[in-house]
UniProtKB/TrEMBL annotation:
Entries under Pfam families matching the protein: DUF8010 (PF26035), DUF8185 (PF26572)
Domain DUF8010: 3-97
Name of the protein in its database record: Unannotated protein
Residue ranges of every copy of the DUF8185 domain listed in the record: 117-218
InterPro entries per the UniProt record, alphabetical: DUF8010, DUF8185
Length: 221
């Protein structure tokens, strides 16, 4: 697979930059998976994931889509910083000289890359108010900070985070708290909006006008 592509325009590059900057803030060593089979690019990041696919903690994916200048075939996993550096390089040029052409090869391996949400079968189940999702995210951040002593790391800290972010925000939606955390942190939420919730094959998806968050349905409340 060639993995060469060109973003549609200057604004598309700025949108991708904003999305990846937020994702990198949530995971400083983060990786992005870029996929396209046509003129639509999908960019996946993982604000929350377990180090071992056998762990019971949540894996939460953030997804943005954007247009390409022409059709491409892409499936690549690269450091977020590499994409940000390339965009910054182009933005330093006069706007008329910017091309936003990428030539990429997969250089990373991460546990969440093997997680594949369903592509079809999504059914809207309900919608949740933005203030509720924002509140869940804030409450979870505080709980994690207060529960994990500064001296504690490794498996104990990972278990606590999994418990907090894997918990369902209510019995009906089965949305894990980590999905609310990702939606807020990635800038997908707009004040006052209602966010549709979709389900498919044991997965749940929050979809706002700015992006999507996907995860397995929460198993506990």
């Amino acid at each position: 697979m060639k993995n060469d592509f060109q973003l549609l325009d200057h604004q598309t590059a700025l949108d991708l930059k904003t999305f990846l900057t937020r994702a990198k803030k949530m995971d400083p060593k983060g990786v992005v998976r870029l996929r396209a089979f046509g003129a639509l690019l999908t960019a996946y990041v993982a604000p929350l994931f377990t180090a071992n696919i056998l762990d019971d903690g949540p894996t939460v994916l953030g997804l943005r889509t954007m247009d390409l200048k022409q059709e491409a075939e892409i499936n690549v996993l690269v450091p977020i910083q590499a994409i940000l550096d390339r965009i910054a390089f182009e933005l330093e040029k006069p706007e008329l000289e910017q091309s936003f052409v990428f030539h990429l090869e997969s250089s990373e391996r991460v546990p969440w890359a093997g997680v594949s949400p369903p592509r079809t079968g999504w059914v809207e189940a309900t919608s949740l108010p933005e203030y509720m999702l924002t509140g869940v995210a804030r409450k979870g951040i505080i709980e994690v900070a207060e529960t994990i002593p500064e001296s504690v790391g490794g498996p104990i800290a990972a278990r606590i985070r999994s418990e907090v972010w894997g918990r369902a925000i209510d019995l009906d939606s089965k949305v894990p708290a980590g999905a609310a955390f990702a939606a807020a942190g990635l800038g997908f939420l707009t004040e006052g909006e209602m966010v549709p919730v979709f389900h498919s094959q044991g997965w749940v998806r929050l979809s706002s006008q700015f992006g999507h968050v996907l995860s397995k349905e929460a198993k506990h409340f």
